[in-house]
Amino acid sequence: MSTFFEQLVNGLTVGSFYALVALGYSMVYGVMKLINFAHGDLFALGAYLGYSLLTGATGKITASMGLWGGIGFTALLVALSVALAGVLVERIAYRPVYPSGRLSLVVSALGMAIFIQNAIMAIWGSRPQAFPASVVPSLRFSFFGIPVTLLQVTILGISFALMLIIWLIVEKSNFGAAVRASALDRETAILLGIDVRKVIFFVFALGPGLGGVAGLMNGLYYRAISFNMGWNYGLKAFTATILGGIGNIPGAMLGGLILGVVESLLAGYVSGAWKDVFVFILLIAILIFRPTGLLGEKTAEKV
Amino acid sequence: MNLSLSLLKRILGTPGSSGGGDELRRRRIIGIAAAVIFALFPLLPFVDNYWIDVGFYVGIYALLGLSLNIVLGEVGLFDLGHTAFYAIGAYVTAILNTRFHIPILWLLPVSAIAAGLFAWLVTAPVIHLKGDYLCIVTIGIGEIVRLSMINNPLGLTGGPNGINGIDNPHFIVPILSSRQFYYLLWAIIGLSAFLLTRLQRSRVGRAWNYIREDETAAKALGVNVRHYKLSAFVLGAALAGVAGNIYASKQMSISPESFTFMESSLLFCIVLLGGLGSIPGSVLGALAVTVFPEIFRPFAKYRLMFFGLALLLMMIFKPGGILPRLRDSGERLKKVVETKKARSSKPGAGCEDTADILKRANSAESADRSGSINTIDRADNVDTTQRSECSAHAETGGAQDKLLLRIENLGLSFGGVTAVSDMDLEVVKGRITALIGPNGAGKTTVFNIITGIYRPMSGRVLLRGEDISSRLPHQIAKAGVARTFQNIRIFPSLTCLENVLCGQHSRGKAGFAASMLRLASQRTEESRMLQKAQTCLARVGLSDSADSLASALPYGKRRYLEIARALAAEPELIVLDEPSSGLNDAETLELAALLKSLVAEGLTIFLIEHDMNLVDMVSDHVVVMQSGKKIAEGPMCDMRQNPKVIEAYLGSEED
């Protein structure tokens, strides 16, 4: 039973990365109807920026701020820079191509993804890098008999806090209503006086910002990072988005967490090597029986 | 000024036309030049084996590009996992060759069949998914295949290291050198391109394009959407399997690294760079994607960065691709199916044919015009004469007329909202029946049930006494019901003639083999379809626009194009959803004349209409709906006095 709970906590931790990245996919998809293929690579960019901030000369600065000060400062800086990168991606790769239709956007997104991935490789090198050991002290303690590490608690704490904030913004605030309205029907939203450009700016800053923080935490958790890690995480997170219902904010969070947990349980009980195969089979099965995802609403086709 | 403008237009290619003869000629010259260059390239003195191999890999990507183009370009299905089929071909070849020593070229068809079969198995359950959902499923399929290869199931795939020691092909002589591989591959590409071009110019290729342009319209006009989507996947996968076979034997070893998501996205880019649905475009796209990183090899680690940037810039400045597909003119489509014999033995036979059609078309048009004048005259008299004869006109001849369509007890609701309930209705043969009612009454829903777009929850739809309520849209179209749509659904990037040919789809039967081999039966059928389509275009007065793209038509003419398309389906019942909306008064009168003349020829019309003048002018029988129920029926003049109808439109007096 203890392995079960260990896998569960592990799954929730990985799932929270997926959830944070999935939020970015979902928000962008909602407003732009675009799969932002560059999003996974922005996640990788977050990991690498975090690596740079925590090692070398800058590592001394962050270390001097104490444990929580240092992590908080790094997370903030990573979030801001990746958010900026996200906004730039929208300006450069999507805004000029938007009028040419969806297929061109897909190619433009793929082009941007290849660009960012190879830019990371050009800057940090093609060999994997390692985060410094135990930035967060490797404390283990028991939570109702379930063994958890301080790092896991930290990651889950930050992730759930961020998700709660996003949920409050999107579901409860006026601006969130504008975001949801733009996602439902962009044209009508514009006619109703919603500044869709502001909404787009918001989703392209917030989504990558969250993804960047997830990248940083992923680096802290697994330590090893590589320039092409974005593809795989992006794909998983996008799977989570579809699982929860694309364009649906709580769905993205739920999808991410479920995917993480299912994955670790599969790895723990069935087979580590085949877990990704099972995940994709599960995804296809869900799409066959519930094409709009777990929380997505069924809509009748308008003829 | 005028001259320079026309010159500029000629250089840029006129938008909104199917590409003039000039553009066609220019492309043909470029195409021949390119073929010569490709044929001579390995023989040039300064080309070493390295560059011949680059030419070979251009070929692999070209073949893969052509294969993805079938799925993505022709049918518009987002396939981002196409590498899976390529991998299946390569692995089938590798496993069967290394274990059982079956010769590589024997395995060529085996790989194609295996990949095609695999595509059918994995896409059949998901083919109904739309756009991005299908896209993510294909990504999933790609990953499942790649990960399975890595995990070495049953020790077959050799895990991450893959399989080594694959034989060379043996075709008369053993194929060993770079040059021999180059020619083998490009010969296959040439053959594939030739056959695919034939498919493009056939009933099959057009059906694919109809689905890409507007799936709903395609199925309502008789295209079996599921069949054509699946067949595109199977054919595309088979071609990718061929590429896998040749790749494996050239490399002599394969590993899962060659079949990543990155490869699939590269193929996606090849098709888009070249131009959606363009065969020469796919080859050119492959050339760009392979040669670009080669040229930038000196910049080693920055080259893929540049490549990403180049993709992006292409989509900003030339989103339609480098060589977008030119649509064929009617003349060209005709020439293609004419037999050589007919052309040589009867010089000018083709011309006579065209002249004949034109003559008939013209007479049809003029008859149409005179008809319209007549009806306009009659229409002017409507107020004075018809009104007074109202009740006399009402049910004359109703009894002996035959029932064509009968709706019984129809009901449908969406998530608790009742759209139609307990609806009964009859459409009599050879008459115009109108369905009217305030917005949201459920009229279009009734139409969608009749044409099979929706399935009713209760009740039946009987066509000539046969229950059609559980049939699929394309089956209903074939049974003799054609329709138009409230918010026009034409196929914008096809020519008007091709739009109308869609109606004829269900009247033909030429399949893949017949179209690729251009059998005599296919040619006769095709020229019959073309003739019918041209007559239908003439019927609505659009002969002049036959070769221009449908997107170039003004709004009013698009309605006529839709009607011509429905007529081309040779229906018994034609169902029109608000045909007059967006038309001005003069155009509405023309429409009324057209409808009347169609009925005079024996057609039955059922229409939804908001323009009461039009309903008044043309309809023999009117059914009024409100809130999903029938509230009244009878001749229009009775409806005008019916208190229930007045209440439905104007609200009750107590309000």
Which oligomeric state applies? heterodimer
How many β strands of chain A by DSSP? 4
**Uncertain residue ranges of chain A:** none
Shape of chain B: elongated
Distance between the termini of chain B: 65 Å
Largest sheet of chain B: 6 strands, mixed
Q: Which band does the percent of strand residues of chain A land in? A: under 5%
Topology as H/E string of chain A? Answer: HHHHHEEEHHHHEHHH
Tally the structural domains of chain B: 2
Question: What is the CA-atom radius of gyration of chain B, in angstroms?
Answer: 29 Å
The assigned CATH architecture of the largest domain in chain B is Orthogonal Bundle
Task: Note poorly predicted spans of chain B.
Answer: 1-18, 345-389, 391-400
Query: Into which percent range does the helicity of residues of chain B fall?
Result: 55-70%
Overall residue-averaged pLDDT value of chain B: 85
Describe the protein's topology.
The complex is a heterodimer of chains A (303) and B (655).
Chain A: H1 2-32, H2 39-54, H3 56-64, H4 66-94, H5 102-124, E1 129-130, E2 140-143, E3 146-149, H6 150-172, H7 174-184, H8 186-191, H9 196-222, E4 224-225, H10 229-244, H11 249-269, H12 275-289
Antiparallel strand pairs in A: 1-4, 2-3
Chain B: H1 2-12, H2 21-40, H3 49-74, H4 83-100, H5 104-123, H6 131-150, E1 170-171, E2 173-174, H7 178-200, H8 203-213, H9 215-220, H10 225-251, H11 261-274, H12 279-295, H13 303-317, H14 330-337, H15 340-345, H16 349-386, H17 390-394, E3 403-414, E4 417-428, E5 432-436, H18 443-450, E6 458-463, E7 466-467, H19 473-478, E8 481-483, H20 496-504, H21 512-517, H22 520-539, H23 555-568, E9 573-577, H24 585-600, E10 604-608, H25 612-618, E11 621-626, E12 629-634, H26 636-641, H27 643-650
Parallel strand pairs in B: 5-10, 5-11, 8-9, 9-10
Antiparallel strand pairs in B: 1-2, 3-4, 3-6, 6-7, 11-12
Helix pairs in contact in B: 3-7, 3-10, 3-11, 3-12, 4-5, 4-6, 4-10, 5-10, 7-10, 8-10, 8-20, 11-12, 14-22, 16-22, 16-24, 20-22, 20-23, 22-23
